[in-house]
Amino acid sequence: MKRLFVLCTCILLAVTLTACSKANENEIRIGINYELSGDVATYGQSSVEGIEMAIEEINKAGGINGKKIVPIKYDNKSEPAEATTLANKLITQDKVVAILGPATSGSFKAEIPVANAKKVPVASGSATADDVTVTSDGKVQEYAFRVCFNDSFQGTVMANFASENLSAKKAVIIMDSSSDYGKGLAKNFKENFVKAGGTIVAEEAYVAKDTDFNAILTKIKGLDFDVIYIPGYYNEAGLIIKQARALGITAPILGADGFDSPVLVDLAGAEALNDVYFTNHYSSLDKDPAVVKFIEDFKAKYNKEPDAFNALGYDLAKFVCDAISRAEKLNGESIKKALEETKNFVGVTGTLSVDEFHNPVKSIVVIGLQNGKQVSSIKINP
User: Fold this and answer.
1) Residue 20's pLDDT is what?
2) CA-CA distance, 16 to 8, in Å (whole number)?
């Protein structure tokens, strides 16, 4: 009886292992490492909604070369250290062939050493810092990619928009000095605004989680300036805008894609969000048929209007899956090569080609707000 029990156990184990092996052969595991809680959770949550919608569409259409995509999703809690831990877990334990996310530059950069060491591609839809895909000494991060433009491009575009479209000659910068994102944007805006003949009359700084900006705003109120540039995230930007308007500061306020969150309106109040402009990846005002269809499908699935992070997440998943479908083998090195060879990929946030630095060559949008609503959208090509 004992021998029979052992024999039956071995047969059952063999059948189970065979079934699992066959199931794995018909699956492609992709990691999702995003900020689903914590300080910048709205970016991660929106990105993942777009990602899951894209994967659902791909699987419904037959998957990738007949294989079903299986997303493995974790919350990095908006913490770079946690993002690193999860990247290790996704690669070594969950055996993913690529990782999507995180959303922010700091957390995305934290997982790149793991990706390079394990030779598994990682890609972000919204990590815009200049040194995400290229190190400070000019070396390309071999396994890191993104589908968003970088901060140099954002800062340059907004400086030119201020000079050319708003006829601004004097600007104030109020920067988030605690983030690479804020510092990078401020640097590029300043350089290009001055190059265009403008003057920076004041530079003020705050750190993430500050809530009272009246000292800064009172200090600049008496200065002569045409625009205020706030390179930072919606958490603080919303409060700065509200407090600035309450003090009677009516100058146009400029920002970047960190403004793109419904929480901006909650924090600032719709009445304060007049003459506010920010660079972004996508606008719901775009009448391109692909954009219109995406908006309709997204509203049908989630019963709300999509934001730029929804669109970027959607494009990110489609971009990586497109490369996987073209890869010679289902491994990190082959997928990396396919990502590098991407040309004219058509996404909701624009058509992109990957350059030698693993950055996308694509257009950018400047969005104008009145009473908290998008009223204008200008597309600018690279």
Assistant:
1) 43
2) 12
pLDDT of residue 2: 54
Residue 377 dihedral angles phi and psi, to the nearest 5°? -150, 120
d(CA 317, CA 123): 9
Which stretch of DSSP H or E encloses residue 8? helix 2-25
Mean pLDDT of 41-57: 97
Identity at 36, one-letter amino acid code: L
CA distance 132 to 114: 14
- CATH code (residue 17): 3.40.50.2300
Q: Are the beta carbons of 102 and 44 closer than 8 angstroms? A: yes
Give the SS3 label for residue 352. strand
Please, what is the average pLDDT of the chain?
93
Nearest Cα neighbor of 123 from 30, 260, 232, 233 is: 30
Predicted pLDDT at 181: 86
Note whether residue 14 is domain-resident: yes
Residue 228 pLDDT > 70 = yes
- Asked, for residue 166, whether it belongs to a domain, the answer is yes
DSSP state of 346: E
**pTM beyond 0.85:** no
Same domain, 121 and 251: no
Structure confidence by residue, pLDDT tens digits, 111-165: 999 999 999 999 999 998 889 999 888 899 999 999 999 888 999 999 999 999 9
Per-residue pLDDT tens digits for 346-369 = 999 999 999 999 999 999 999 999
The rounded distance, in Å, linking the Cα atoms of 141 and 207 is 29
Phi and psi based region of residue 251 (left: phi greater than 0; alpha: psi -120 to 50; beta: remaining): beta
Considering the domain architecture, whether residues 186 and 131 belong to the same structural domain is answered as no
**Residues of 336-364 as b/e, b for ≥16 C-beta within 10 angstroms?**
bebbbebeebebbbbebebeeebbbebbb
Q: How many CA atoms lie within 13 A of 260 on its CB side?
A: 29
Range of the domain at 225: 152-280
Q: What angle do CA 47, 95, 115 make, to 5 degrees?
A: 65
Q: How far is CA 291 from CA 46, 57, 245, in A?
A: 17, 16, 34
pLDDT recorded at residue 282: 86
Sequence-separated (6 or more) residues with CB below 8 Å from residue 158: 189, 229, 254, 255, 256, 277, 278, 279, 366
